[in-house]
Structures are given as structure tokens and as C-alpha cells.
Give the backbone structure.
Amino acid sequence: MISLKTISMSKLDDVFKDKLNLLIEQQKAIEKYLSATEKKILQEYVNFFLGKLHEDKDGNIKSDKTTAELSTAIDKIIDGFVAKNLNLIAKRIQTDFSELVIENKKYYNEMVGKLARDVSSSVIDQLNQHLGSGFINNLVSAEPLRQELKAITFAAVQEGTPMAEFKKQIQIKIAGSKAEDVNGTLTKHVGAFVYDSYLQYDRTINLEYAKELTLTQFIYSGGLIEDSRVFCKNKNNRVFSIEEAELWKDDPDLLRTVDERKTGILQGYIPTIHMGRWRCRHIARFVTPELADKYERASASKEEKNKIAKESPAIPGLKELDNEIERITKVVGTK
């Protein structure tokens, strides 16, 4: 049994919120970086590739290059782009992940003190072992962009697409279009993957600390937003055990792929790592048994007060009376 440090729940909440805010800012920053990177690759593609195409008298695309030659030219642009830009994104993600490790270490240090410090090295070793050295590089891939650019270009040449229309297609495919509410290829393929990976990495850190510290209970943390899913609404801010979370696999509100709905079998779903699945903002915030009990009692008390407030009939003038009493009390207290 882990002994609880003398610490207020509010103080621990603050430490956790600092980590959560960092995670949110990291995700926003990487999405902005991806958007800026899309504009760079669009400029490079326009400057260095379109010169290999020309227009006929009707403004349609023509090329004296073979498909293989066009493919090689596109590969050259993409490979150069990866070396100059995506590798920088990978390094940025590495830095962000290192910061998440530090912030989680602060949280567990605050909660259990020396015990957390003693297991931190083991947690990092387990992270590296589970995720592997190529984990971050695998997050950032230009392959979807490479294949989609080739498909559009080859089709345009074969069909004699008007150059103006082709440029518009390339613009939307690479950098997206706000007017048409379409994301660019990097944001669509890499951005969504990276967003989930930040959260999954953070959840993995938490799970490794839980294993090392033999913690089995956690708070479903992260808050709610306007489009939060029913699955998350039903669990937000509630305390669960790892054993209870395994039952989520049978929850009808959990998102599933088409194949999963057909077969009834979830693919690779680990509740404390994947939570509400794709684009889910929630984290399994592990706590000691004492804190779990304290949090549950506080939540139950809050729910009971809210229930009483909703069920109690409104008394005309009561609010005004309370305000007047508070005013008189303040006046008296100053004399």
C-alpha cells in the first residue's frame, strides 16, 4: 500500500492541469507547424515541378516526360522536403515528448514523493522498450502526400486537364482550402495521427508509473467540450479501476470501425491508452487509493448538492435577501 503524502487535492489538481495545458499547447503548435509546412511544399512544387509541364493552345496540360520521369521528379521534391522539414517536425515532437515525461514526473512526485523518484528511470526504460527508437519517425511520413501528388499529376497529364484547374487541385491537395473546409494532406494524414500520438504517449507514461507504483485506480480526466462524445460524457471526472475499464470494450457508445462493428471484435484497444479512441482528449490520471476515495466522496457530495439545488423550489426574493444580508454583514464588519 502506498502511503499518501500530506497534500491537498487542489494542489495535485493544479500540477495535473499544468501538464494538461502543456499538452494542449503542444498539439496546437504542431498543427500550426504542419499547416505552415504545407505552404512550403506547395511553393516548392509550383516552383520546381510545374516547369516540367506545359500547356497546349487550349490551356490544357501537356508533358514530354514519361510517367517514370515525372515520378522521379516528384520523388526528388518530396525527399528534399522530408530532409528539410519533416525531420525538423520529428525533432520537435521528440522535445515535446521529453517535456511530457518531465511534467508527469512532477505529478507523481507531488503525489507520492520519493517512491515516484525511485521508479522514474524504470518508467523511461519501459517507454523506450514499448515504443521503440523509430516511434517518432514513424509518426511523420510524407508517403500519403507523395502518392496523392503522383495520382493527381499523372491523371492531369493523361486527361489533358486545364493548367488552371490542375493548380487548384494541387493547392487543395497540398495546403487544403478554408473556403471548402478541406485540410491539406499533411494535416489530414499526419496531423490527426500526431494528435492522437501525443495523447497516447502521455497515457503510456501514466500507465507505466501506475505499474511501477502499483496504482490501479484513475480519474477519467480532460473535461468536456461542445462535441464531446456520449462515451466520454458518461465517464468524465469519474474514478475507475483498470479492471473496470476493461468493460469499456463492451460499451455500445465506444467508437468502432466498420470491420469492428461487423465482427464485434475490437482491434488493439487498450482502455487506459486509447480511452474514447480517435481524437479523444481524455487521460487516465492515476491516483492512490486514498485519493481515489477522497475524490469520489467529494464528487458524490457535489452531485448531491446539485441534485438538491435542482429539486428545491425557487423562493421568490430569496436571492435578493441573501445579497442584502451579505451587504449588511460586510458593512458591519468594517466598523
